[in-house]
Each structure stands twice: as structure tokens, then as C-alpha cells.
Design goal:
The protein folds into 3 domains: 55 residues, Uridine Diphospho-n-acetylenolpyruvylglucosamine Reductase, domain 2 (2-Layer Sandwich); 143 residues, Uridine Diphospho-n-acetylenolpyruvylglucosamine Reductase, domain 3, CATH 3.30.465; 93 residues, UDP-N-acetylenolpyruvoylglucosamine reductase, C-terminal domain (Uridine Diphospho-n-acetylenolpyruvylglucosamine Reductase, domain 1, Alpha-Beta Complex), CATH 3.90.78. It contains 8 helices and 21 strands. The mean pLDDT is 96. The protein is of the alpha+beta class.
Length: 331
């Protein structure tokens, strides 16, 4: 058995049979894939138990740059740290992903959750995703438009039965500087370069989120819920200061962190698990937390939000039990 505490950002001490670090396509062909769990840095998952199988860790990091007309084309190995790639893009003067700076995790994991921050989602820049199908033992490619990117979801997440190890992601980033500065904290005309936006984003994240090298967490634990306009209007009548983000089509996004805070759950503790005192949306390991403590706290938070607002929270993190991925309702 091998300890996975360094392979999940919560730092939970759970085990797997064996761990295989995949550094090349040849490694993939030879690695045991039966009942294998794919990990990058484990930054958006919750392991609720020991895993009864092997773990394949994506360590493919090769990166290539080219140009195609008005676009910069970047092909990056799925095992590279996303923030490392963004730092290099900015140093090369390539814009488009700087709003996603300091998001923990790998390039290969980013399309699965369609990670996003400060008005930018990574799916908008993805041209294609290369993968190895662990069950069919074959390589393939999915075009960006076929990835089903949505709010914190994608085709990969919606079809867990297809165990795809993402080997490489191709990004197409329009040349020039096209800043997205609509979110609070970025509305500033002084942010006139990708580097300045990156530095501001990093500063904002450090002000409200725990340092992942010090405090274990999976970032935002819950998704921001989306409701209809009528329900949003009812909530606003009762809570005039509630943040509302119209999405069009009669849909409105709510701020899960605000709901959790108003439900009295910011900064609370259960055992060795707690919600972060500067951002209630983040559940943290306060030191040697057990998986069941994280689960119990998250369940309590979701119950309190539903009791107060009638809103059902859904986890943003992916949840894995002894035999593989499980749903929130199965815990």
C-alpha cells in the first residue's frame, strides 16, 4: 500500500495499492490500467477512503509553442502545473489565461472541471485534448467544441465511465492583449499587460484563500448554484444585499460563499476540518483531518444552506471512494 497524502491537496492520509508515475506515452502503454485512478496533483478531489486499486500520476510536462495566423498555439503535457504554464505564457507576452493564475492543479485536470476564475474559463481557449483510453488501450483526440464545456463541467466529467488519461492539451490564444477585467478587483485601467493582471490575480487569491503549501484544501468545495429569475427575485426581496449574477436565458448565478457565510458556517470547525475564515466556500484540513470529518462538515454546511435559503449546494470537487468515483448523494 502507498500513502496518497502528497497526491491530494487536502493532505488526507489514504492509501492505494501502488502508484505509477507516467512520464511518457510508453509508460502509459505498460502501466496497469485495470481499476486505475488518474491523478494530476489531486487539487480538486476528495478521497473518502483507501483506494482499492492503482494510481496513475500524470507527469507528462513537455510544452511546445507555435503560431497559426492570428493565434498562438500551445501544446502542453497534461502533467504540467497549470500556473507554471501561465507564468511562461505571460513571460512570452502571450495573453488569454492570466486570469487563471495561481489555480492549483495540472493542465490535464483543468479541462475536466473547465476551471475558471475572474471571468475566464479554460475551455474557451482549448482547441483539442489528446488522451489515452485506459479501457480500449488506444490514443485519441477530442476537439474543443466537442468537450461539452460548461460551468465547472465538461464531457470528461459527465462521462466518468470513459477513463481517459489526458496526455496533452492544445490551446489557441488570440494574439494581442484582450483583457477580461469585469470582475471585482480587476476593474482597473492600470492593468494594461498580462503580467500586471497575473500579479493582481495572485494577490487577490492570496488575500482570501489559504496557501496550499501550508493549509490543505481543494479550493472551492461547492459550485455557485444557478437558479431561475423568479427564485432569485424572491431571495433578493428577503436579502437585498445578496449577490446576483444574471447568466441570460432566465438563469441567475448565486455566490455559494455568501450563502454559506449567511447560514452561519464561515470559520466553523468539525474535528480537524473547518471552513476558511476568509472564504466560507473553502473547506480546509486544520491538521490531520480524516476523510469522514471533511464529509461531515460539508454535509452540515449544505444542510444549513438549504434550511436557510432552500438552495441545494452541489460539490465542485470530485469525490472518490474505495472503488472509484461516487456521487454526493452516495456518501
Amino acid at each position: 500500500m502507498e500513502d496518497l497524502s502528497t497526491l491530494n491537496s487536502f493532505g488526507l492520509h489514504v492509501n492505494a495499492k501502488s502508484v505509477y508515475r507516467i512520464r511518457s506515452l510508453a509508460d502509459l502503454r505498460s502501466a496497469p490500467s485495470d481499476h486505475a485512478l488518474i491523478l494530476g496533483r489531486g487539487s480538486d478531489i476528495l478521497l473518502t477512503d483507501d483506494y482499492d486499486g492503482n494510481v496513475l500520476v500524470n507527469c507528462i510536462t513537455d510544452t511546445r509553442f507555435s503560431e497559426d495566423g492570428d493565434f498562438n498555439v500551445v501544446r502542453c503535457g497534461g502533467g504540467r502545473e497549470l500556473d507554471s504554464l501561465i507564468g511562461e505564457l505571460v513571460s512570452r507576452g502571450i495573453s488569454g489565461l492570466e486570469n487563471l493564475s495561481a489555480i492549483p492543479g495540472t493542465v490535464g485536470a483543468a479541462p475536466v472541471q473547465n476551471v475558471g476564475a475572474y471571468g475566464v474559463e479554460i475551455g474557451s481557449a482549448i482547441a483539442s485534448v489528446d488522451y489515452f483510453d485506459l479501457d480500449r488501450r488506444e490514443f485519441g483526440t477530442i476537439k474543443g467544441e466537442d468537450c461539452g464545456f460548461g460551468y465547472r463541467t465538461s464531457w470528461f466529467k459527465e462521462h466518468p465511465e470513459r477513463r481517459l488519461f489526458i496526455t496533452e492539451v492544445e490551446f489557441r490564444l488570440k494574439k494581442g492583449f484582450h483583457p477580461v477585467l469585469s470582475y471585482k478587483g480587476l476593474v482597473d485601467t492600470a492593468l494594461d499587460t498580462p503580467y500586471k493582471i497575473r500579479e493582481r490575480v495572485i494577490k487577490l487569491r492570496r488575500e482570501k484563500l489559504p496557501d496550499p503549501s501550508v493549509v490543505g484544501s481543494a479550493g472551492s468545495f461547492f459550485k455557485n448554484p444557478v437558479v431561475g429569475e423568479d427564485q432569485a427575485a424572491l431571495l433578493q426581496r428577503s436579502y437585498p444585499d445578496i449577490p446576483l449574477y444574471p447568466l441570460g436565458g432566465g438563469r441567475v448565478k448565486l455566490a455559494a460563499g455568501w450563502l454559506i457565510d449567511r447560514a452561519g458556517c464561515r470559520g466553523i470547525t468539525h474535528g480537524n476540518a473547518g471552513t476558511w475564515d476568509k472564504q466560507a466556500l473553502v473547506i480546509v484540513n486544520r491538521g490531520n483531518a480524516k476523510p469522514h470529518e471533511i464529509v461531515a462538515l460539508a454535509k452540515y454546511v449544505s444542510i444549513e444552506v438549504f434550511r436557510r435559503f432552500g438552495i441545494k449546494l452541489e460539490p465542485e470537487v470530485r469525490i472518490y471512494g474505495r472503488r472509484g468515483e461516487i456521487t454526493w448523494d452516495q456518501i
